[in-house]
Design brief:
With 159 residues, the protein is an alpha/beta fold. It is 50% helix and 11% strand.
């Protein structure tokens, strides 16, 4: 697959918490900004089970996107430079990339994509979606999870 995907910290943490980090390998070539790796190490999230490339980004986070944290800013800069898809669970980052016409998905989208690629059964997908909602530190509104489950039941999940 030739699609390049850049992840910020959130989806890496949340997918690891749901024990489905390997789904990232289905989405494309994964690129992780160096600052995101540093954030993961501080929080002790291990992503070594997934194949990814690390990329250092030098960016003035004070002026480039001052409303975003450094990891989100670095990921956004890489997406712009490389014409990549952004993986983020942060609402401000999602809104910013939509303004810049960058394709964006989050942890729920990765799970749905995994289902669409038949890496997860319907039951496993629903279980993982519930785990993301109830057991990860990702805030998900109940209507979002219900909509995601409806997409799975209608076999209409994916990117």
């Amino acid at each position: 697959m030739s699609r390049l995907v850049v992840a910020d910290t959130g989806p890496l943490i949340h997918l690891a918490q749901a024990d489905v980090l390997a789904l990232l390998e289905l989405t494309g070539e994964l690129l992780v900004p160096g600052i995101v790796l540093e954030e993961l190490e501080r929080g002790q999230t291990d992503i070594s089970e997934v194949e990814f490339a690390a990329k250092r980004v030098t960016v003035d986070t004070e002026s480039t996107h001052p409303h975003l944290d450094p990891g989100e800013t670095a990921a956004l800069v890489l997406c712009t430079e490389r014409d990549a898809v952004l993986l983020t669970d942060d609402l401000d980052a999602r809104n910013t990339v939509r303004e810049e016409d960058i394709e964006v998905h989050g942890s729920v989208g990765v799970v749905l994509y995994g289902y669409s690629q038949r890496a997860l059964s319907e039951a496993a997908t629903n279980r993982v979606l519930r785990e993301l909602e109830q057991e990860s530190n990702l805030y998900l509104a109940p209507p979002l999870i219900e909509h995601a489950i409806e997409l799975v039941e209608a076999d209409d999940a994916g990117w």
